[in-house]
Write a structure and sequence with these properties.
The protein has six helices and no strands. It is mainly α and about 90 residues long.
């Protein structure tokens, strides 16, 4: 199964099934655009797990703005802190 397949199935399968598929294909650093496309379909726990897989150099203000509606305040604060540390 590829990321493309998972993204295509996301609107049509349960969050539980989607989470299992994401676990199977997430074998390394995760592209931020993939996370953004799956964010509306994942529960917060799995979304936060994916966000944790984003390497600091891929964090951007645009990524934070795109994910803000889908994460809790603590996760967003950690992401902002990581972004700020990156630009120092």
């Amino acid at each position: 199964m590829s990321w493309h397949s998972v993204q295509g199935l996301a609107p049509f399968i349960s969050r539980e099934t989607l989470s299992r598929l994401v676990d199977r294909v997430a074998d390394g650093p995760i592209d931020a655009n993939r996370i953004i496309s799956l964010a509306p379909f994942l529960d917060r726990e799995n979304l936060e797990k994916l966000i944790g897989g984003v390497e600091a150099e891929h964090l951007s203000p645009d990524l934070l703005a795109s994910l803000a509606p889908f994460v809790d305040q603590g996760t967003l604060s950690r992401m902002v802190t990581n972004l700020l540390n990156k630009v120092k």
